[in-house]
Design goal:
Elements (H helix, E strand, L loop, with lengths): L2 H11 L3 E6 H4 L4 H18 L2 E6 L1 H5 L8 H14 L4 E5 L9 H5 L12 H11 L4 E2 L5 H7 L5 H23 L4 H7 L2 E2 L1 H15 L20 H16 L12 E5 L6 H11 L3 E5 L1 H4 L6 H15 L3 E5 L2 H4 L12 H15 L6 E7 L17 E4 L6 H11 L11 H7 L6 H13 L12 H9 L7 H16 L1
Helix pairs in contact: 3-5, 7-8, 7-9, 9-11, 15-17, 18-19, 18-20, 20-21
Length: 485
């Protein structure tokens, strides 16, 4: 985020020596050895005074090691050295997670400064500064790039430009041929918009395995067939506060939307489409990424998710299969009470969003009856939207057309006739499965693969919808109960 960069800049401005010590190098096999290394760092700083001593990753030096009697020894030594340091030695420590430090360690420092993730304007300023010595093409729009990099910090932006340079070299090698990458870099490569977009995609894909890698998805309304009323309800909740920020002061904004209904009806697609159409970053969260057996870790994970969402605002946080993450408290059955504590922390984070701007939470579930009822109170997931199947043939035709945008269909195929032959309770997932079955029944000798009328007929012979009439009736009853509340 730029902690060390800020300290370096301040040291240069004040004409002070800067001694950087990574606490990884101060860690030793024993507490006594760690204490000795820390003392040696302070002695080197005194020899360089006036000096700034920068202790990076302080949490590594103070982390518990299993010996309760000795764990406080290094912390006590740090406090002693801080109090004994001369006025001409300024000690600055950095940490990623201040909650990982004890209260005694934090109190040993006179000032605590929190660095927030940069805003869109700050990211633009950083990009201008970082690219000052680079050759940028005329099609490069740093203002647009600052919008696409929501959630990025200084280190991410620096890595983005470095990766864009490598992408530009690969592009030139491919077009020119024969020249080495080192020669191209030495001669000065011009970065084009396509290089930056390629680098942005590479970085986002590399981060996607971590909890919370916000990015703007690429799902348009045309990818979601039908469900017109559902689209309107979600947009009224999400888009209106962005267009009319004065509603926030009146308390008229809602931050939580719960999509419920049968599986395969397009709940996840809807959430992604809203984020795309409103130019918002999208942060998808699944249960296994958050739930952890260690005490306090699950709560820390959910705090981290919302922290990233606030830094990437405007942002949509999407909780898929919410019933597995937030079941009714007291009934989860885990002996350690992990799920109960997780639900309590989730409720606290949702309540805190009332003061946040541009962060919206969308949950999806097939079983709203299993959710903890506190989630459905005003200010949380208080906007309930039923996402059912498209029962009329016109809507089903829209869904089929949306699905087939990614298929090649024979011009002789009448999609209306295909829809008329389908069962009357087909979900979006069913229609996609039908098209996939039709395509895979084609003989492999055909090039290109065109789905014909015969392929659809063959796929329909043994096709059964994934949701039965009985299950649809149960969902209708759930909808009636939730609407009646």
């Amino acid at each position: 985020i730029g902690k060390a960069t800020a300290v370096s800049a301040a040291s240069r401005r004040l004409n002070l020596h800067l001694l950087k010590v990574d606490c990884v190098s101060a860690c030793a096999d024993t507490h006594a050895a760690s204490e000795a290394r820390l003392s040696a760092a302070f002695q080197r700083a005194e020899a360089l005074r006036p000096c700034v001593l920068l202790l990076r990753n302080l949490q590594l030096l103070l982390r518990p090691r299993g010996d309760a009697r000795e764990d406080g020894r290094v912390q006590a030594a740090l406090c002693r050295l801080l109090h004994g340091a001369p006025a001409s030695v300024a000690v600055v420590a950095t940490t990623r997670r201040p909650r990982g430090l004890s209260a005694g360690a934090v109190a040993a420092f006179i000032h605590q400064v929190a660095l927030e993730s940069p805003t869109e304007e700050q990211r633009r300023s950083m990009l201008v500064s970082l690219s000052r010595d680079l050759h940028l093409g005329r099609d490069v729009d740093l203002e647009r790039l600052s919008k696409l990099t929501a959630g990025f910090v200084l280190g991410d932006l620096s890595a983005l430009l470095a990766e864009a340079g490598r992408a530009a070299c690969r592009r030139l090698i491919h077009t020119c041929g024969g020249r080495q990458e080192e020669d191209l870099c030495a001669s000065g490569v011009t970065l084009l918009n396509q290089d930056l977009r390629s680098a942005l995609k590479t970085l986002q894909e590399a981060q996607s395995a971590a909890i919370g890698a916000p990015k703007i998805p690429d799902v348009r309304w045309e990818d979601v067939g039908g469900l017109q009323q559902v689209k309107k309800e979600i947009l009224d909740t999400v888009q209106l506060p962005l267009q009319r920020p004065e509603l926030l002061s009146l308390g008229l904004s809602r931050t939580g939307v719960l999509l419920y209904g049968p599986p395969g009806t397009g709940k996840t697609l809807l959430a992604k489409a809203v984020a795309t159409e409103c130019s918002m970053t999208f942060l998808s969260v699944k249960g296994p990424e958050l739930i952890n057996m260690y005490v306090g870790q699950s709560e820390e994970n959910i705090r981290e998710v919302f922290s990233r969402a606030r830094s990437a605002a405007p942002c949509v946080v999407f909780f898929d299969e919410l019933d597995s993450l937030a079941p009714s408290r007291g009934r989860s059955g885990d002996s350690g009470g992990v799920m109960d504590r997780f639900v309590s922390q989730l409720l606290a984070e949702l309540d805190a969003l009332q003061s946040a701007v541009g962060v919206f939470v969308i949950g999806a579930t097939n079983r709203p009856d299993l959710l903890d009822q506190s989630l459905l109170r005003p200010g949380r997931f208080d906007k309930l939207v039923y996402v059912g199947i498209n029962e009329d043939r016109a809507s089903q035709l829209q869904v089929l057309q949306a699905v087939l945008r990614k298929f090649q269909v024979d011009s002789a195929v009448d999609l209306q006739q295909v829809v008329d032959r389908c069962p009357d309770h087909m979900t979006g997932a069913d229609l996609y499965a039908l098209c996939s079955d039709a395509m895979t029944t084609r003989p492999l000798r055909d090039t290109p693969v065109l789905v014909s009328v015969e392929d659809f007929s063959s796929a329909l012979e043994n096709f059964k919808p994934s949701v039965s009439h009985k299950e649809l009736l149960r969902y209708k009853n759930i909808q009636h109960k939730l609407t009646a509340k």
